[in-house]
Design a protein that fits this description.
By secondary structure, the chain is mostly helical. The protein has 7 helices and 2 strands; from the N terminus they run H-H-H-H-E-E-H-H-H. Helix 1 (about 1-40) packs across helix 2 (about 45-70). It is globular.
Length: about 230
């Protein structure tokens, strides 16, 4: 019975995190729209820089306060970053393989990326997305479960259930919609790649316990994606 309650609690927490992520994202869109009405004439990537900065600040400040008050570690340090190099390499390979498949099937039109796009993807994309889609689920889910959320595969391997859940949530993040507007858009390729990269970044976070390392890797992965 205790095990069933833990599973129900885990499911309810996952749904709660998903609802929070959706509402939080929609809130930051509303804030951005207000800013865009007052600051006009910027490029789309400049507005995205503002948006992701708002995303970062809205969660960074509260989680810092929570970490100090409740001694919950959200990974705001970087001293173990070398432990994630293997998973970083795996992410680079995934992005390059996807780019290769796209080039084979759709051709290569050359590289045409503006400086503002490079700046946004490299420095701001991970800044805005890693706390809600990596740190929060990978801290909250094990706390609810009461221990590390893993499943044994054979005699040698363990699967991180919380990493898979966070990767699914990250993939859902790449379904585009906005409250008050009709229509939902998505790409199956993007959803699958987002899931795989979500697994890579989740494993990096577990290995390094550093959300900063995940932000840097996220930016590099996105640079590969948008340029190739």
């Amino acid at each position: 019975m205790k095990g069933k309650k833990r599973i129900v609690g885990l499911g309810a927490t996952t749904i709660g995190i998903l609802c929070f992520q959706i509402l939080y994202y929609q809130l930051t869109v509303i804030i951005l729209q207000g800013i865009a009405n007052r600051i006009t004439g910027l490029s789309n990537d400049c507005y995205l820089m503002i948006h992701h900065t708002v995303q970062f600040l809205l969660l960074f400040i509260p989680t810092i306060l929570i970490s100090k008050a409740l001694h919950i570690d959200f990974g705001y340090h970087i001293h173990q970053w070398k432990k994630g190099l293997g998973w970083f390499g795996a992410g680079v390979v995934i992005e390059l393989l996807v780019a290769l498949v796209i080039v084979i099937f759709y051709g290569f039109d050359g590289i045409s990326v503006g400086a503002d796009t490079i700046i946004f993807q490299l420095f701001f994309s991970g800044l805005g997305e890693e706390i809600p889609y990596r740190a929060l689920p990978l801290v909250i889910l094990p706390l609810v479960w009461g221990k590390e959320l893993t499943a044994q595969i054979g005699a040698k391997y363990e699967m991180d259930i919380d990493v898979l859940i966070s990767a699914v949530l990250f993939s859902i993040r790449h379904i585009s919609f906005q409250f008050g507007h009709s229509g939902i858009s998505y790409s199956w390729t993007q959803l699958i790649v987002a899931f795989l990269i979500g697994v890579v970044l989740g494993k990096m976070y577990k290995r390094t316990n550093s959300i900063w390392a995940c932000m840097i890797a996220h930016g590099i992965f996105n640079i590969i994606a948008v340029t190739l």
